[in-house]
Amino acid sequence: MGYAVRRQPDPRIAQCIRIVLGDVLSVLDVGAGAGSYEPSDLSVVAVEPSWQMIKQRSHGSGVVQARAEGLPFPDRSFDAVMAVLSIHHWQDRTRGLEECARVARQRVVILTWDPASEGFWLVQDYFPEMLAHDRPLFPTMESLGAALGPISVQATPIPWDCTDGFLGAYWRRPDAYLDASVRAGMSPFSRVSDSGSRIKRLRSDLASGRWARRHGDLLGLQSVDMGYRLVTAELH
Predict the structure, then answer these.
(1) Whole-model pTM?
(2) pLDDT in tens, 173-187
(3) Which residue, 8, 82, 120, 205, has most beta carbons within 10 Å?
(4) Which domain holds residue 158?
(5) Do 201 and 126 meet the contact criterion of CB atoms below 8 Å apart?
(6) Number of domains the chain contains
(7) Phi, psi dihedral angles at 106 (to 5 degrees)
(8) Distance separating alpha carbons of residues 45 and 196, to the nearest angstrom
(9) What does the alpha-carbon distance between residue 229 and residue 152 come to, in Å, rounded to a whole number?
C-alpha cells in the first residue's frame, strides 16, 4: 500500500493549518510529499525533492522538483510558505528556513515536532532510539525563532482517530503498529534494524493485557499532546 494511501490528511489538522495561513491567496508547500495538506481553496505550488513522492500526488497543483535549501523562485513570490512535517528531512535546516522566509511575502507556517517533548508510549517503551535519533533532526522552538524572527507556537493535539498515518497517529489504537503496511508510512521505522523483536513484544503486551495496564487511561481520551507544534512567523 502506497505512502499516499496511508498518509491521508486529517481534517482537524488541516483546519488548524488553514486558519493560521490566514487571508492569503498563494502558497508554496515546501517538502510537500504527496501534498496532503495543500489547501484546495488557494493557489498552491509544491516543492518536493523526491520523484517517488511526486509520482504519488493525486491533485492538480503545480509541483517543482527542488529542495528547501535552494527554492527556485524570486524573492517574495508567494503570500505564504508552508512546511508540514518535512523540516526534519531537510539537509540544512537553517538555509531552508532562510529560503522559506525569502520567498514569502506575509508568513511562514510550519507543522513540526518539538524535540523537547517526551514523545509517547511507542517510543518510550519500545523504540527509544527513535527519540535519540530524531531529537537532533527537529529544530527547537528557539532555533526556529532565531531563523525566522518572532514566532507564535500552537500546540497541535492529535485526535484519537487521526487519519494521517504519521508516527504518533495511532496512540490510542496500538494494534495498528503491528501492521507492516502501517509502519511503512512512518519514516522512523526505516531506520530501525531490529524492529521485529520490539513489535513482537508489543504484540505480546497487547495480548497479555500488560499494555492496557500501563496505558489503559489513554483509551478514555479524545486527543493528546505529543509535542506536535504549529509554528507561524509573520514577516514584515
Answers:
(1) 0.89
(2) 999 999 999 998 888
(3) 82
(4) 3-234
(5) yes
(6) 1
(7) -115, -50
(8) 39
(9) 10
